[in-house]
Amino acid sequence: MKICLVTTFPPSRGGLSEYGFHIARELQHDPFLSLTILADKLEGQEPEIKDFSVIRCWKFNEAGSVLNVLSEIRRLKPDVVWFNLIFTTFGHDPFVAFLGLMLPLLSRFTGCYTHVTLHHLMDTVDLEDLGVRFPRLYRAAGALATRMLLMSNSVSVLMPARS
């Protein structure tokens, strides 16, 4: 089975890169899986971690990254595309972040089984405390992005349950 893992990945210091590494390391233990990591581009010329197939095809805060990731997914034709995400994985710019959050749905439209590991929900973020200028607009966009993510074949949310 061919899996593409879309995540930040070491030696990148992007959010969730260590978590992406642990997912990839566990998947590599299964000899029946073929794993390709679609990772964020590095600023410098740091060496890749050995024994991982990494394609650095997207860049933080770059709108064109969505097309680059989709192009790699189409080229590789994986059985599963696994996204390791927070709402700002692809950028702090709201437009770029939203475009990046469209990727799981667009990936599913290519015919791939799409899984999302989501590390937080917009409902739990205090936008006023963060000093967001238009919190109502952000909430609406966050709700729409959440709906798009829920259109994936499967979603896991890594948050404790409320009692």
What would you note in describing this structure?
The chain has 163 residues and is of the alpha/beta class. It has one domain (2-157): Rossmann fold (3-Layer(aba) Sandwich), CATH 3.40.50. 36% of the residues lie in helices and 21% in strands. Strand 1 (2-7), helix 1 and strand 2 (34-40) form a beta-alpha-beta unit. Helix 2 (65-76) runs parallel beside helix 3 (94-109) and helix 3 (94-109) packs parallel to helix 5. The longest helix has 16 residues, at 94-109. The mean pLDDT is 90.
Give a quick summary of the entry:
This protein is α/β, with parallel strands linked by helices and 163 residues long. The chain has five helices and six strands; from the N terminus they run βαββαβαβααβ. Helix 3 (94-109) links the parallel strand 4 and strand 5.
